[in-house]
Amino acid sequence: MSSAPAVRSVSPARLNAAQRRASRLRWAGVIAAVVGAHFIAAQWFERHHDTFKPVSPEHIPVQVALLKPERIETQAAGSPPAAQSRPAAPKRRAQPPREHVLTATRPGGPKPKPAPTAEPASAPVAASAAAAESASGAAASAAASASTATTAQGEGTAPQSAPGVKFSVPPSGELQYDTFYNGVRNQPGTIHWTSDGRTYDMVVSVPLPFVGTFSYASRGHVDAFGLAPDQYVEKRGRRGEDITTFHRDTKQIGFTRTPNTLPLQDGAQDRFSMVMQLASLVRGDPDAYQPGVTRQFYVTDNDSGEIWPIETIGDETVHMEQGTIDARHFMRLPRREGDRRRIDVWLAPSLGWLPARLVQTEPNGTQIELVWRGRIAPPDANGTASADDTPSGAPQPSVTDPGAAPAKP
Q1: Are 23 and 15 in contact (CB under 8 A)?
Q2: How far apart are CA 187 and CA 207, in angstroms?
Q3: 124, 171, 303, 329: least CB-packed within 10 angstroms?
Q4: Structural domain harbouring 333
Q5: CA-to-CA distance for 131 and 112, rounded, in angstroms?
Q6: Within this chain, do residues 159 and 237 fall inside the same structural domain, yes or no?
Q7: Does residue 321 form part of some domain?
Q8: Residue 72 within a domain
Q9: Are 390 and 381 a contacting pair, CB within 8 Å?
Q10: Is the pLDDT of residue 153 over 90?
Protein backbone atom coordinates (compact mmCIF):
# COMPACT_ATOMS: atom_id res chain seq x y z
CA MET A 1 0.00 0.00 0.00
CA SER A 2 2.89 2.36 0.72
CA SER A 3 4.65 1.71 -2.57
CA ALA A 4 2.04 3.27 -4.78
CA PRO A 5 2.26 6.75 -3.27
CA ALA A 6 6.08 6.55 -3.50
CA VAL A 7 5.92 5.84 -7.16
CA ARG A 8 3.46 8.63 -7.70
CA SER A 9 5.72 11.05 -5.82
CA VAL A 10 8.43 10.88 -8.58
CA SER A 11 7.38 13.74 -10.78
CA PRO A 12 8.36 14.11 -14.43
CA ALA A 13 10.43 17.18 -13.55
CA ARG A 14 12.55 15.26 -11.08
CA LEU A 15 12.98 12.41 -13.55
CA ASN A 16 14.19 14.82 -16.25
CA ALA A 17 16.57 16.46 -13.81
CA ALA A 18 18.04 13.09 -12.87
CA GLN A 19 18.52 12.19 -16.52
CA ARG A 20 20.26 15.49 -17.19
CA ARG A 21 22.60 14.92 -14.27
CA ALA A 22 23.45 11.44 -15.54
CA SER A 23 24.05 12.81 -19.05
CA ARG A 24 26.34 15.51 -17.70
CA LEU A 25 28.30 12.93 -15.72
CA ARG A 26 28.71 10.75 -18.80
CA TRP A 27 29.93 13.68 -20.90
CA ALA A 28 32.28 14.74 -18.13
CA GLY A 29 33.74 11.24 -18.11
CA VAL A 30 34.17 11.25 -21.89
CA ILE A 31 35.87 14.64 -21.85
CA ALA A 32 38.16 13.53 -19.04
CA ALA A 33 39.11 10.41 -21.00
CA VAL A 34 39.82 12.44 -24.15
CA VAL A 35 41.88 14.99 -22.24
CA GLY A 36 43.82 12.18 -20.56
CA ALA A 37 44.53 10.46 -23.88
CA HIS A 38 45.72 13.75 -25.42
CA PHE A 39 47.91 14.38 -22.40
CA ILE A 40 49.51 10.94 -22.68
CA ALA A 41 50.06 11.40 -26.43
CA ALA A 42 51.56 14.85 -25.88
CA GLN A 43 53.95 13.47 -23.28
CA TRP A 44 54.99 10.63 -25.62
CA PHE A 45 55.66 12.96 -28.55
CA GLU A 46 57.47 15.42 -26.32
CA ARG A 47 59.68 12.64 -25.01
CA HIS A 48 60.51 11.26 -28.47
CA HIS A 49 60.58 14.54 -30.38
CA ASP A 50 64.34 14.96 -30.27
CA THR A 51 65.12 11.26 -30.60
CA PHE A 52 63.21 10.63 -33.79
CA LYS A 53 63.24 13.95 -35.53
CA PRO A 54 61.27 13.95 -38.80
CA VAL A 55 63.00 14.60 -42.08
CA SER A 56 63.38 18.30 -42.76
CA PRO A 57 61.39 19.86 -45.60
CA GLU A 58 62.74 19.33 -49.07
CA HIS A 59 66.02 21.18 -49.48
CA ILE A 60 68.10 21.31 -52.61
CA PRO A 61 71.45 23.07 -52.04
CA VAL A 62 73.50 24.56 -54.81
CA GLN A 63 74.93 21.80 -56.97
CA VAL A 64 78.72 21.57 -56.89
CA ALA A 65 79.38 18.58 -59.15
CA LEU A 66 77.42 15.95 -61.06
CA LEU A 67 78.96 12.47 -60.99
CA LYS A 68 77.81 9.92 -63.55
CA PRO A 69 78.56 6.18 -63.62
CA GLU A 70 82.01 5.54 -65.02
CA ARG A 71 83.59 2.36 -66.18
CA ILE A 72 85.91 1.07 -63.51
CA GLU A 73 88.74 -1.36 -63.84
CA THR A 74 89.53 -3.83 -61.07
CA GLN A 75 92.90 -2.96 -59.62
CA ALA A 76 94.24 -3.15 -56.08
CA ALA A 77 94.93 0.24 -54.57
CA GLY A 78 98.61 1.09 -54.50
CA SER A 79 99.64 -1.79 -56.73
CA PRO A 80 102.65 -0.80 -58.89
CA PRO A 81 102.60 -0.80 -62.69
CA ALA A 82 103.79 -3.87 -64.51
CA ALA A 83 107.53 -4.06 -64.88
CA GLN A 84 108.82 -3.51 -68.39
CA SER A 85 111.95 -5.54 -67.78
CA ARG A 86 113.52 -7.38 -64.92
CA PRO A 87 116.41 -4.95 -64.26
CA ALA A 88 114.10 -1.89 -64.07
CA ALA A 89 111.20 -3.42 -62.12
CA PRO A 90 109.86 -0.87 -59.56
CA LYS A 91 109.72 -1.72 -55.91
CA ARG A 92 106.45 -3.17 -54.68
CA ARG A 93 104.72 -2.14 -51.50
CA ALA A 94 105.30 -4.32 -48.49
CA GLN A 95 101.66 -5.22 -47.85
CA PRO A 96 98.69 -5.29 -50.23
CA PRO A 97 95.51 -3.43 -49.13
CA ARG A 98 92.92 -5.34 -47.15
CA GLU A 99 89.94 -3.76 -48.92
CA HIS A 100 88.48 -4.50 -52.32
CA VAL A 101 89.21 -1.41 -54.41
CA LEU A 102 88.25 -0.57 -57.96
CA THR A 103 90.05 2.04 -60.06
CA ALA A 104 87.98 4.00 -62.55
CA THR A 105 89.00 4.67 -66.13
CA ARG A 106 87.11 6.75 -68.63
CA PRO A 107 86.33 4.97 -71.92
CA GLY A 108 87.38 6.43 -75.21
CA GLY A 109 90.63 7.36 -76.82
CA PRO A 110 93.36 5.05 -78.02
CA LYS A 111 95.49 3.48 -75.40
CA PRO A 112 99.05 4.80 -75.29
CA LYS A 113 101.59 2.50 -76.81
CA PRO A 114 104.35 1.59 -74.40
CA ALA A 115 107.83 2.64 -75.33
CA PRO A 116 109.91 -0.17 -76.77
CA THR A 117 112.04 -1.87 -74.23
CA ALA A 118 115.59 -2.71 -74.87
CA GLU A 119 116.36 -6.36 -75.13
CA PRO A 120 119.09 -7.46 -72.79
CA ALA A 121 122.34 -7.56 -74.59
CA SER A 122 124.00 -10.92 -74.79
CA ALA A 123 127.68 -11.35 -75.29
CA PRO A 124 128.93 -13.72 -77.93
CA VAL A 125 130.32 -16.98 -76.82
CA ALA A 126 133.84 -15.92 -77.57
CA ALA A 127 133.53 -12.44 -75.90
CA SER A 128 135.68 -11.68 -72.96
CA ALA A 129 134.30 -11.26 -69.40
CA ALA A 130 134.83 -7.49 -69.50
CA ALA A 131 132.82 -7.11 -72.72
CA ALA A 132 129.93 -9.15 -71.29
CA GLU A 133 129.81 -6.97 -68.17
CA SER A 134 129.76 -3.81 -70.30
CA ALA A 135 126.89 -5.12 -72.47
CA SER A 136 124.83 -6.04 -69.40
CA GLY A 137 125.25 -2.54 -67.95
CA ALA A 138 124.15 -0.99 -71.23
CA ALA A 139 121.01 -3.16 -71.30
CA ALA A 140 120.04 -2.10 -67.78
CA SER A 141 120.51 1.55 -68.67
CA ALA A 142 118.33 1.20 -71.77
CA ALA A 143 115.58 -0.56 -69.82
CA ALA A 144 115.54 2.22 -67.21
CA SER A 145 115.28 4.84 -69.96
CA ALA A 146 112.37 2.94 -71.53
CA SER A 147 110.55 2.78 -68.19
CA THR A 148 110.98 6.55 -67.71
CA ALA A 149 109.65 7.19 -71.21
CA THR A 150 106.63 5.02 -70.57
CA THR A 151 105.85 6.91 -67.36
CA ALA A 152 106.16 10.25 -69.10
CA GLN A 153 103.94 9.06 -71.92
CA GLY A 154 101.28 7.91 -69.41
CA GLU A 155 101.33 11.34 -67.78
CA GLY A 156 100.85 12.97 -71.13
CA THR A 157 97.62 11.00 -71.73
CA ALA A 158 95.98 11.90 -68.38
CA PRO A 159 92.79 13.27 -70.03
CA GLN A 160 92.08 9.76 -71.34
CA SER A 161 92.21 8.00 -67.97
CA ALA A 162 91.06 8.97 -64.47
CA PRO A 163 93.66 9.06 -61.68
CA GLY A 164 91.70 6.44 -59.73
CA VAL A 165 88.17 6.57 -58.31
CA LYS A 166 88.16 4.18 -55.38
CA PHE A 167 85.38 1.74 -54.62
CA SER A 168 85.40 -0.24 -51.37
CA VAL A 169 82.69 -2.80 -50.54
CA PRO A 170 81.37 -2.37 -46.95
CA PRO A 171 82.08 -5.09 -44.37
CA SER A 172 79.59 -7.91 -43.93
CA GLY A 173 77.18 -7.87 -41.03
CA GLU A 174 73.74 -8.63 -39.65
CA LEU A 175 72.51 -5.08 -39.09
CA GLN A 176 69.59 -4.34 -36.74
CA TYR A 177 67.38 -1.26 -36.88
CA ASP A 178 64.47 0.23 -34.97
CA THR A 179 61.61 0.66 -37.43
CA PHE A 180 58.94 3.35 -37.43
CA TYR A 181 55.76 3.75 -39.43
CA ASN A 182 54.69 7.42 -39.41
CA GLY A 183 56.69 7.87 -36.22
CA VAL A 184 55.18 4.88 -34.40
CA ARG A 185 57.67 2.24 -33.32
CA ASN A 186 57.25 -1.26 -34.68
CA GLN A 187 59.20 -4.48 -34.30
CA PRO A 188 62.93 -4.27 -35.12
CA GLY A 189 64.00 -4.63 -38.73
CA THR A 190 67.19 -6.08 -40.19
CA ILE A 191 69.55 -5.64 -43.10
CA HIS A 192 71.47 -8.82 -43.86
CA TRP A 193 74.58 -7.88 -45.85
CA THR A 194 77.39 -10.19 -46.89
CA SER A 195 80.13 -9.72 -49.48
CA ASP A 196 83.51 -11.24 -50.21
CA GLY A 197 84.50 -8.52 -52.69
CA ARG A 198 83.38 -10.65 -55.66
CA THR A 199 79.72 -11.41 -54.83
CA TYR A 200 77.16 -9.91 -52.48
CA ASP A 201 73.87 -10.81 -50.81
CA MET A 202 71.49 -8.25 -49.27
CA VAL A 203 68.11 -8.84 -47.59
CA VAL A 204 66.13 -5.97 -46.01
CA SER A 205 63.26 -6.92 -43.68
CA VAL A 206 60.83 -4.28 -42.32
CA PRO A 207 57.78 -5.40 -40.27
CA LEU A 208 54.71 -3.18 -40.66
CA PRO A 209 51.51 -3.26 -38.61
CA PHE A 210 48.43 -4.98 -40.04
CA VAL A 211 50.01 -5.62 -43.48
CA GLY A 212 52.90 -7.92 -42.53
CA THR A 213 56.61 -7.81 -43.28
CA PHE A 214 58.05 -5.97 -46.26
CA SER A 215 61.17 -7.75 -47.55
CA TYR A 216 63.58 -6.77 -50.30
CA ALA A 217 66.36 -9.07 -51.50
CA SER A 218 69.19 -8.17 -53.87
CA ARG A 219 71.84 -10.68 -54.97
CA GLY A 220 74.62 -10.29 -57.47
CA HIS A 221 78.34 -9.80 -58.02
CA VAL A 222 80.94 -7.07 -58.41
CA ASP A 223 81.85 -6.11 -61.97
CA ALA A 224 83.62 -3.25 -63.74
CA PHE A 225 81.00 -0.74 -62.54
CA GLY A 226 80.73 -1.83 -58.90
CA LEU A 227 77.79 -3.82 -57.56
CA ALA A 228 75.99 -5.69 -60.36
CA PRO A 229 72.61 -7.14 -59.28
CA ASP A 230 71.60 -10.44 -60.82
CA GLN A 231 68.15 -10.64 -59.18
CA TYR A 232 65.97 -8.35 -57.09
CA VAL A 233 63.00 -9.81 -55.19
CA GLU A 234 60.38 -7.60 -53.54
CA LYS A 235 57.60 -8.91 -51.29
CA ARG A 236 55.17 -6.58 -49.54
CA GLY A 237 53.20 -8.21 -46.77
CA ARG A 238 50.83 -10.92 -47.99
CA ARG A 239 51.23 -10.03 -51.65
CA GLY A 240 53.14 -12.29 -53.98
CA GLU A 241 56.76 -11.76 -54.93
CA ASP A 242 57.79 -9.36 -57.68
CA ILE A 243 61.09 -10.42 -59.26
CA THR A 244 63.42 -8.33 -61.40
CA THR A 245 66.13 -10.25 -63.29
CA PHE A 246 69.25 -8.72 -64.81
CA HIS A 247 70.14 -10.84 -67.86
CA ARG A 248 73.82 -10.12 -68.41
CA ASP A 249 74.05 -12.40 -71.45
CA THR A 250 71.30 -10.62 -73.42
CA LYS A 251 71.78 -7.17 -71.82
CA GLN A 252 68.11 -7.05 -70.84
CA ILE A 253 66.17 -6.49 -67.59
CA GLY A 254 63.07 -8.64 -67.18
CA PHE A 255 60.16 -8.42 -64.73
CA THR A 256 57.53 -10.81 -63.46
CA ARG A 257 55.11 -7.95 -62.92
CA THR A 258 55.08 -6.89 -66.57
CA PRO A 259 56.07 -8.55 -69.86
CA ASN A 260 58.03 -5.44 -70.82
CA THR A 261 61.83 -5.51 -70.76
CA LEU A 262 64.44 -2.78 -70.47
CA PRO A 263 67.97 -2.55 -71.87
CA LEU A 264 70.54 -3.34 -69.20
CA GLN A 265 72.70 -0.27 -68.71
CA ASP A 266 76.20 -0.29 -67.29
CA GLY A 267 76.15 0.29 -63.57
CA ALA A 268 72.39 -0.43 -63.24
CA GLN A 269 71.17 -0.94 -59.66
CA ASP A 270 67.99 -1.99 -57.90
CA ARG A 271 66.34 0.05 -55.15
CA PHE A 272 68.46 -1.38 -52.34
CA SER A 273 71.74 -2.31 -54.02
CA MET A 274 71.90 1.42 -54.82
CA VAL A 275 72.33 2.12 -51.08
CA MET A 276 75.33 -0.21 -50.83
CA GLN A 277 76.72 1.03 -54.16
CA LEU A 278 76.64 4.56 -52.72
CA ALA A 279 78.19 3.31 -49.47
CA SER A 280 80.99 1.61 -51.44
CA LEU A 281 81.76 4.79 -53.38
CA VAL A 282 81.72 6.99 -50.28
CA ARG A 283 83.76 4.43 -48.33
CA GLY A 284 86.38 4.44 -51.09
CA ASP A 285 86.73 8.24 -51.23
CA PRO A 286 84.75 10.11 -48.52
CA ASP A 287 86.29 13.50 -49.37
CA ALA A 288 84.76 13.40 -52.86
CA TYR A 289 81.22 13.67 -51.44
CA GLN A 290 80.93 17.21 -50.12
CA PRO A 291 77.59 19.06 -49.71
CA GLY A 292 75.99 19.66 -53.09
CA VAL A 293 77.82 16.88 -54.93
CA THR A 294 75.28 14.80 -56.87
CA ARG A 295 75.82 11.30 -58.27
CA GLN A 296 73.49 9.70 -60.78
CA PHE A 297 72.38 6.07 -60.56
CA TYR A 298 70.26 4.10 -63.01
CA VAL A 299 67.84 2.27 -60.70
CA THR A 300 65.23 -0.35 -61.56
CA ASP A 301 62.08 -1.08 -59.58
CA ASN A 302 59.78 -4.10 -60.00
CA ASP A 303 58.42 -2.86 -63.35
CA SER A 304 60.49 0.12 -64.56
CA GLY A 305 63.83 1.91 -64.45
CA GLU A 306 65.00 5.53 -64.30
CA ILE A 307 67.84 7.85 -63.29
CA TRP A 308 68.07 8.65 -59.58
CA PRO A 309 70.02 11.82 -58.70
CA ILE A 310 71.46 11.34 -55.19
CA GLU A 311 72.77 14.53 -53.60
CA THR A 312 75.08 14.97 -50.62
CA ILE A 313 73.31 17.15 -48.05
CA GLY A 314 76.06 17.22 -45.44
CA ASP A 315 77.26 15.79 -42.13
CA GLU A 316 74.56 15.50 -39.46
CA THR A 317 73.92 13.83 -36.11
CA VAL A 318 71.56 10.85 -35.95
CA HIS A 319 69.74 10.44 -32.62
CA MET A 320 69.14 6.94 -31.30
CA GLU A 321 68.12 5.41 -28.01
CA GLN A 322 71.75 4.41 -27.39
CA GLY A 323 72.99 7.95 -28.00
CA THR A 324 74.05 9.84 -31.10
CA ILE A 325 76.18 9.01 -34.10
CA ASP A 326 77.71 11.24 -36.79
CA ALA A 327 76.62 10.44 -40.33
CA ARG A 328 76.58 11.93 -43.83
CA HIS A 329 73.13 12.69 -45.21
CA PHE A 330 72.23 11.82 -48.82
CA MET A 331 68.88 12.56 -50.45
CA ARG A 332 67.28 11.53 -53.71
CA LEU A 333 66.29 14.66 -55.59
CA PRO A 334 62.91 14.93 -57.37
CA ARG A 335 63.09 12.94 -60.58
CA ARG A 336 60.45 15.00 -62.33
CA GLU A 337 58.18 17.96 -61.68
CA GLY A 338 55.69 17.15 -58.96
CA ASP A 339 57.67 14.15 -57.66
CA ARG A 340 56.97 14.02 -53.91
CA ARG A 341 58.50 10.65 -53.10
CA ARG A 342 61.77 10.96 -51.18
CA ILE A 343 64.51 8.64 -50.01
CA ASP A 344 66.99 9.84 -47.39
CA VAL A 345 70.07 7.86 -46.34
CA TRP A 346 72.55 8.60 -43.56
CA LEU A 347 75.90 6.76 -43.84
CA ALA A 348 78.05 6.62 -40.69
CA PRO A 349 81.87 6.54 -40.92
CA SER A 350 82.10 4.85 -37.50
CA LEU A 351 80.03 1.96 -38.91
CA GLY A 352 82.29 1.54 -41.93
CA TRP A 353 79.95 3.88 -43.87
CA LEU A 354 77.02 1.50 -43.45
CA PRO A 355 73.54 3.06 -43.14
CA ALA A 356 72.75 4.56 -39.74
CA ARG A 357 69.31 5.76 -40.80
CA LEU A 358 67.01 5.37 -43.81
CA VAL A 359 63.72 7.18 -44.41
CA GLN A 360 61.34 6.59 -47.31
CA THR A 361 58.61 9.23 -47.71
CA GLU A 362 55.64 8.34 -49.91
CA PRO A 363 53.74 10.96 -51.98
CA ASN A 364 50.88 10.89 -49.43
CA GLY A 365 53.28 11.73 -46.59
CA THR A 366 53.60 8.21 -45.18
CA GLN A 367 57.08 7.58 -43.77
CA ILE A 368 58.91 4.28 -43.23
CA GLU A 369 62.02 4.77 -41.12
CA LEU A 370 64.92 2.60 -40.01
CA VAL A 371 67.29 3.80 -37.24
CA TRP A 372 70.45 1.95 -36.22
CA ARG A 373 69.98 0.08 -32.95
CA GLY A 374 73.30 -1.75 -32.66
CA ARG A 375 76.31 -0.79 -30.64
CA ILE A 376 78.27 2.29 -31.61
CA ALA A 377 81.93 1.74 -32.51
CA PRO A 378 84.21 4.63 -31.52
CA PRO A 379 86.07 6.29 -34.41
CA ASP A 380 89.81 6.01 -34.70
CA ALA A 381 92.34 8.82 -34.76
CA ASN A 382 91.38 9.70 -38.33
CA GLY A 383 87.72 10.10 -37.46
CA THR A 384 86.66 6.93 -39.24
CA ALA A 385 86.37 3.31 -38.26
CA SER A 386 85.56 0.11 -40.04
CA ALA A 387 85.82 -3.60 -39.46
CA ASP A 388 89.29 -3.50 -40.99
CA ASP A 389 90.78 -0.99 -38.56
CA THR A 390 88.54 -1.14 -35.49
CA PRO A 391 90.47 -2.36 -32.44
CA SER A 392 89.61 -5.81 -31.22
CA GLY A 393 88.26 -4.35 -27.99
CA ALA A 394 85.83 -1.99 -29.74
CA PRO A 395 82.20 -2.98 -29.20
CA GLN A 396 81.13 -3.65 -32.78
CA PRO A 397 79.81 -7.22 -32.88
CA SER A 398 77.40 -6.71 -35.78
CA VAL A 399 79.93 -5.81 -38.47
CA THR A 400 82.70 -8.07 -39.73
CA ASP A 401 85.42 -8.05 -42.34
CA PRO A 402 84.56 -9.26 -45.86
CA GLY A 403 85.30 -12.93 -46.05
CA ALA A 404 84.95 -13.42 -42.30
CA ALA A 405 82.00 -15.20 -40.72
CA PRO A 406 79.08 -12.80 -40.11
CA ALA A 407 78.80 -11.73 -36.48
CA LYS A 408 75.79 -12.74 -34.44
CA PRO A 409 73.17 -9.99 -33.97
Answers
A1: no
A2: 6
A3: 124
A4: 166-400
A5: 36
A6: no
A7: yes
A8: no
A9: no
A10: no
- Strand 399-400 to 293-300 pairing: unpaired
265 and 319, same domain (yes or no): yes
Coil, strand or helix: which one is 148? helix
Give the chain's domain count.
2
| Total-model pTM | 0.61
Closest CA to 184 of 38, 44, 363: 44
Q: Is 9 within the bounds of a domain?
A: no
What does the alpha-carbon distance between residue 122 and residue 147 come to, in Å, rounded to a whole number?
20
Distance CA 180, CA 308 (A): 25
Distance of CA 16 to CAs 4, 19, 21, 23, 173, Å?
20, 5, 9, 10, 71
Letter for the amino acid at 219? Answer: R
Cα Dmax for the chain: 156
Coil vs helix vs strand at 214: strand
Q: Which pLDDT belongs to residue 28?
A: 86
**Core vs surface per residue 328-357: b (16+ CB within 10 A) or e:** bbbbbbeeeeeeeebbbbbbbbbbbbbbbb
Same domain, 148 and 243: no
Average model confidence (pLDDT) across the chain: 73
Report whether 66 contacts 188 (CB < 8 A).
no
Among the three residues 165, 181, 214, which one is the final residue of a domain in this structure? 165
Reported as a single tens digit per residue, the pLDDT across 176-196 is: 999 998 888 989 999 999 999
Same domain, 152 and 190: no
Q: What is the length of the chain?
A: 409
Residue 402's pLDDT band (boundaries 50, 70, 90)?
Answer: very low
Closest CA to 203 of 176, 237, 184: 176
